[in-house]
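Structure, all three chains, one model.
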Amino acid sequence: MTVVEPLSAPIELHFDYTRSLGPTLSRFMTGLAGRTVVGGRGSDGTVYVPPLEYDPATGAAITEFVDVADRGEVLSWSWAAEPLPGQPLERPFAWVLVKLDGADTGLLHALDVPSPDAVRTGMRVQARWAAEPAGHIRDIVCFDPETDAATAEPISGLDAVSMMTTPVFLGVQHSASVQETRYLQGLREGRLLGQRCPQCRKVYIPPRGACPVDGVPTEEEVELPDRGTVTTFCIVNVPFLGQRIPPPYVAAYVLLDGADIAFLHLILDCAAEDVRMGMRVEAAWKPREEWEFGLQNITHFRPTGEPDAEYDTFKEHL
Amino acid sequence: MRDVAVVGFAQSRQVRRTTGTTNGVEMLVPLITGALGELGIAKGDIGFWCSGSSDYLAGRAFSFVSAVDATGPVPPINESHVEMDAAWALYEAWIKIQTGDVDTALIYGFGKSSAGNLRRTLALQLDPYVLAPLWPDSIAIAGLQAQLGIDQGKWSEQAMAEVAVRSRRDAETNPNAQLSGSKDVDSLLAEPYLAQPLRRHDCAPVTDGAAVVVLAAEGRARDLAERPAWISGIAHAVDSAHLGARDLTTSPSTVIAAQRAGIDGVELAELYTPFTHQELLLRSELGLGDGVRITPSGGALAGNPMFAGGLVRIGEAARQISDGAAGRVLAHATSGPALQQNLVCVMEGR
Amino acid sequence: MSKERAAVLGTGQTHYKAKRQDVSMAGLLREAIDRAMLDADVGWDDIDAVVVGKAPDFFEGVMMPELSLADAIGAVGKPLLRVHTAGSVGGSTGVVASSLVQAGVHERVLAVAWEKQSESNAMWALSIPVPFNMPVNAGAGGYFAPHVRSYIRRSGAPHHVGAIVAAKDRRNAAKNPYAHLQQPDMTMEKVQESQMLWDPIRYDETCPSSDGACAVVIGSERAAASVERPAWIHATAMRTEPTFYAGRDQVNPKAGRECAAALWKQAGITNPLEEIDAAEIYVPFSWFEPMWLENLGFMPEGEGWKLTEAGETEIGGTLPVNCSGGVLSSNPIGASGMIRFAEAAMQVMGRAGEHQVDGARKAVGHAYGGGSQFFSMWVVGAEKPE
């Protein structure tokens, strides 16, 4: 087998999660929206900030709330020399655990100071409030070293905040396996390259890093024709987000001649109700200049007009 | 309780980056084949399979589903998966053997941390309402923990550097380690901070890797291994998630796990400490004196395959028994921010 | 060696809805946990370990959320395990929790499985585009509908069988106050009038997308002594096979058949259809009822539909299936398997309320996941196992 460098491409995962808060967190977030920090009092008198939803001692819901100050003392810190995407500040800052006046526990946030020399355990800090608080932990932009000046004015009479939105975005580098890469390179050239498992001798397309029966990589390359048999299918009647073709159309398992496993693809160029189990089909390729590393080079399969395959010839593939 | 032993261990090389898929198949296939081959058994001899991995590390849902192919599960297998370090998969397997349903188990863990930005991804383990939206990364959290201990005089940057020096020196004899070397404390302390109070040597590297362990019950274990590493105790526990409401310089869950596992008389401890100060913290919490050899493999500071790292500690400690180098050993695994969850496994030669 | 006896001491469920926006994630779990602990008459100090089950973390956007939930679910200072075996996870969580007691390690274990799908969008989480992979553009049912067609072809089942299942499960759900869909007047005809989505699957033959959690407390024989009528665990089994392999039977998967065979053997059951009084089977698309009746060995291959068509899977029939309304009526993915397990237990405990099967003594809970490749099952009974 030729040694190939696996293909690799980035995946960007991004979703704005919508979080319902429940009574305790709602109280805390509603407080923030009004530039007030709310703590929860546990059964032993401990004031937790942020409030815990359930008392560590009894397990009961915490229902007693107290306002605490928006200034307090640094319990510990660490330096963020190169802030990462999404963190509170884009320039270097200190992460701090802050015990707000009136609280018994530490709140984790950012402290805006120019260098690590400007932060120390025990120093006094105060919250810097967002201009337009929304009921979110980021309504506190960050903390600043304490001054004589008052922090921003609280806002009163707000509706309770019951939901928050959290964008989660991550980049991940996806890699194809060596075997899949060979298959993708084949598709780029308009060829369908499967591989045979050295133990069970079955032909897999796409080929596998591990034959699912034997747990060893597929090896021997087998070029497959671009025609085969519909083993089974469904008719897609439902419109959904991102759909490329107006329904109804057919999604079918296609077993290429010479392959031992079917893959899912589209059947077009015939009425959906005319598609049958056993129907013979062939690939409809995109124009050569549009070929890339992927099965999408085949836009769909279409009937060849040959007689249907006998049920017995494909029943082992259902 | 049935007597159960580690009889097989295989691990990949710990490297900064592999070209394989995030479902670990490339790393796992040779390990599973190798571990079974070394024991002279076939996959059909394994009664239970259990793995540990993370979808978020792989950047896709159900990444463990493809990994299962590496076991060649036809005919079907008795199998389970934890979204945790594979040390907890080993715990589940040990439990399964205790029920008497099976006599053998193969455990695997894998992680390709290089596929994403690990320290940032781990921020998603934090409270999703009041912490994760600020994206405090794993090094930031470890730094807060380290600084607390420094302020309280529990450890120092000097002592932390000494941990790194020993880890790298030990790793020189570990062919699978990612980092090794012979720098001394002074030269390490002369390096700039990565995230004060942490320098680069205080933090585990980003590693791709995988590991496999085979367990067997009394009766089978002696057929399979000359010197099985008998598990005399295994236990785990979790601490509060509220970082600002618990004392980060202690590890109550480790203490609980150690009490339940019974750690008296251990000669050696493989500790899963991705940050230097965490080794100092755990040695103190576990009461490990100077006579106890600490993490002779070099540990996570020399190579940190996420979701396999805890299983590697168990495998490395077991190997000390099977090699005859030690008679009673402790392996530790951790999971979650700032040592939130901890497992202790004590093994001995008999 | 023989294992310790274990029993379900209590069960608890949340109300299932598309969006449970009245609670946080912790609040959702606690709703189920508090009910289970009340049902089992236990306090936090009685719980020795916690096992959590959930499907992919992408649904909620939290990596290993049990870590941040540890305090709320009473796990601090205790062993906490997180199981993830795709859609079967709720069942697997029950199996793992049982084994902690059966191994003789713990007296009482709390198991909870959950999903809060409304935090995101399941379709998004499950269809994150993977480079080099062509999206087939078939939608959510596109994977399973072709296998349903294969089943119909192989068994010769009449086309209305799926509609019979859907109507029955929805009517059953109307007797279950926790069920998401409440459609007491559902009929086979109405199901057949609903839109054909993925031919041969109609809209009313598909499951909803729900928020919810389910919890069970499992205890040792000693712990069960103080419970009036516990559900004894007679057998548990799990089996896995690959998603795709050459020659794989995707209608009647081998992993399911072997899992069931191991289950019946362990439970000492030789004729499941006669000996099982109620079955909670994971049926997300209506046709999976007859398919799983065969896979589980209740009916010979190709004949599962006959039991359904004869009305014998109704409450009062030979084998009442999904008296709770099943997955077709409530589907908080990660919890769905545990709901099946808990509902089976409720039947033999006599605590199933309006959907109780009279005199149920033995029941089966079943879950599956992935591409019909992960299976977990248990048999619970009113009598102590031998």
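The two ends of chain A are 31 Å apart (CA to CA).
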